[in-house]
Amino acid sequence: MYRLTDAFPYLIARVGVRMAELFAKRLESFGVTLPMYRVMAALWQRGGQRLGDLSEMTSVEISTLSRLVGVMQRRGLLSRRRPDSNARTVEINLTKSGCALVERLSRTAHPARTAA
What we know:
CATH class of the largest domain: Mainly Alpha
CATH architecture of the largest domain: Orthogonal Bundle
Strand content: 5-15%
Distance between the termini: 47 Å
Number of domains: 2
Order of helices and strands: HHHHEEHH
Strand order of the largest sheet: 1-2
């Protein structure tokens, strides 16, 4: 008989959910949510992104991401600007304080890397 709880994809999904829950708890002390961290990490990896590209990279829906970017901008973590090359688009980048925070958070996300 098929048992969902024995299926490999189910078990992998459960591990991912649990890891996300544990990491989200660590982020709380920084006043950051997991979706906020995803946005900052994505911009750290590749800055100057448009909302659609950032949505694809972070797996956060555009409507949710738009509100989240607004919150993060008000907190001074992100900036939005219209590039000279295309005034119809908005480019999102980390601010200096956003960069500093994501550097601190990356040590929380990847503690083994900081030991080396």
